[in-house]
């Protein structure tokens, strides 16, 4: 299944199967606004905007926000949250790695755990530079997966790998955003903006897998996936003691901020 269809298919369940919450997004927005010295005219762009989890607070506060995403269904979910499309929000269905936008048009470009998804990351970062206004900020951010949840997913990946006959995925490319911008004279600052506790029962996490809410769930055939999931559920009963067991650990939101010196 293509990435396009994958995101279209999970759009309705995307927010509930992730660990970013609206309250955390509000706190992150406070930090970003202070970091970039925002004023009422500050403009924001998020390539790979998805359902708008990261920039929804900025839209609600009246800032000019443009979001690009390859999935129309994800963009529709964003609009649904706002019960329409306010004047200060522009949503574009397009490949986020090729920004269909004029140069020097945004004060802030934000990406959240998306640079690894583009086919040519240096070209994409060149596009980020192109659309930034002089003195603008590029914020490369990510939500760090809670360790207990990551462990759960690693256990499932092992079951999925046992019986799959699909080709292995291409090894991930090495990406060094800091070196890229450092060589161009940008200064960089790193900060952990927020830490918060994430809790789910084993049953909930199995339900997320059953709904195929993550990319790893689409890398094998339906038959292979169902076989692995059934075996994994049996494993979970033994390993966690009960499907009602709650597993908790800390997530965090981190940002690397780049600005031309």
TrEMBL record:
One Pfam family in the UniProt entry: Methyltransf_11
Residue ranges the record marks as coiled coil: none
Cited Gene3D superfamilies: 1.10.8.900, Vaccinia Virus protein VP39
GO molecular function: S-adenosylmethionine-dependent methyltransferase activity
Domain Methyltransferase type: 45-138
Keywords noted in UniProt: Methyltransferase, Transferase
InterPro entries named among the record's database cross-references: Methyltransf_11, SAM-dependent_MTases_sf
Keyword Transferase carried by entry: yes
GO annotation, biological process: methylation
Domain of life: Bacteria
Protein name (record): Methyltransferase, putative
Origin species: Acaryochloris marina (strain MBIC 11017)
């Amino acid at each position: 299944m293509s990435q396009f269809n994958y995101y279209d298919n999970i759009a309705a369940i995307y927010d509930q199967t992730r660990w970013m919450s609206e309250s955390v997004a509000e706190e992150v927005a406070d930090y970003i606004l202070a970091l970039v010295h925002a004023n009422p005219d500050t403009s924001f762009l998020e390539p790979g905007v998805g359902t708008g989890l990261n920039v929804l607070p900025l839209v609600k506060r009246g800032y000019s926000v443009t979001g690009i995403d390859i999935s129309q269904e994800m963009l529709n979910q964003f609009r649904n949250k706002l019960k329409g499309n306010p004047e200060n929000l522009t949503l574009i269905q397009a490949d986020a790695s090729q920004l269909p936008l004029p140069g020097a048009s945004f004060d802030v470009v934000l990406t959240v755990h998306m640079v690894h998804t583009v086919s040519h990351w240096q070209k994409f970062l060149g596009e980020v530079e192109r659309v930034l206004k002089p003195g603008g900020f590029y914020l490369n951010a990510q939500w760090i997966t809670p360790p207990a949840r990551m462990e759960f997913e690693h256990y499932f990946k092992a079951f999925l790998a046992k019986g799959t006959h699909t080709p292995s995925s291409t090894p991930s490319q090495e990406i060094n955003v800091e070196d890229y911008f450092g060589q161009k004279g940008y200064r960089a600052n790193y900060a952990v903006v927020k830490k918060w506790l994430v809790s789910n029962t084993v049953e909930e996490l199995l339900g997320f897998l059953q709904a195929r809410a993550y990319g790893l769930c689409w890398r094998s055939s339906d038959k292979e996936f169902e076989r692995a999931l059934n075996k994994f559920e049996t494993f979970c009963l033994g390993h966690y003691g009960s499907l009602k067991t709650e597993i908790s650990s800390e997530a965090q939101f981190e940002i690397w901020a780049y600005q031309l010196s």
